[in-house]
Specification:
The protein has 135 residues and is an alpha+beta fold. The protein has one domain. The strands form two sheets. It has a two-stranded antiparallel ribbon with strand order 1-2. A two-stranded antiparallel ribbon has the order 3-4. Strand 1 and strand 2 form a beta hairpin. Helix 1 packs antiparallel against helix 2. The longest helix is centred in the N-terminal third of the chain and has 18 residues.
Length: 135
């Protein structure tokens, strides 16, 4: 039976990513590399960001482009959007949106603004709380 080259390539890429992440000196360096890897590993991904809620306040922890930061800012300002929702749901939700225009019922103010930013689709994944030791 022939090996699935796509699965083998993905496994190799994930192993390289893991080594890279383990080699980072700071938490911020690791977060920056996570979003960079997201862009390189997800075939149609043009930019990525990491939005988290800390102390009740959402903020962008890392981003590969200004558009990711702006999308986060808009979601926080409007109080709606897929990334914002994925950070505050009691049940961890993954939002895969193939066409941003199809979610105007769910996020009526965010969807048109996302389209203005050039966002046609997106994925929003919940981030689990990560505790880091105090220094």
């Amino acid at each position: 039976m022939a090996r699935d080259r796509g699965a083998e390539s993905l496994a190799t890429s994930l192993a390289q990513m893991a080594r890279d992440l383990l080699g980072q000196d700071t938490v911020q360096d690791t977060l920056d590399r996570i979003v960079t890897h997201a862009v390189s590993l997800v075939e149609v991904c043009e930019f990525a960001g990491l939005l988290a809620v800390e102390g009740g306040r959402p903020r962008t922890l890392a981003a590969t482009a200004d558009a990711a930061c702006e999308s986060d800012r808009i979601q926080v300002e409007l109080g709606e959007g897929p990334c914002l929702d994925s950070t505050r749901q009691h049940v961890q939700m993954v939002y895969r949106i193939d066409d941003i225009d199809t979610v105007e019922d769910r996020w009526p103010r965010y969807a048109p603004k996302a389209r203005e930013l050039g966002i046609g689709s997106r994925i929003a994944l919940p981030r689990r709380k990560i505790s880091t030791p105090s220094r």
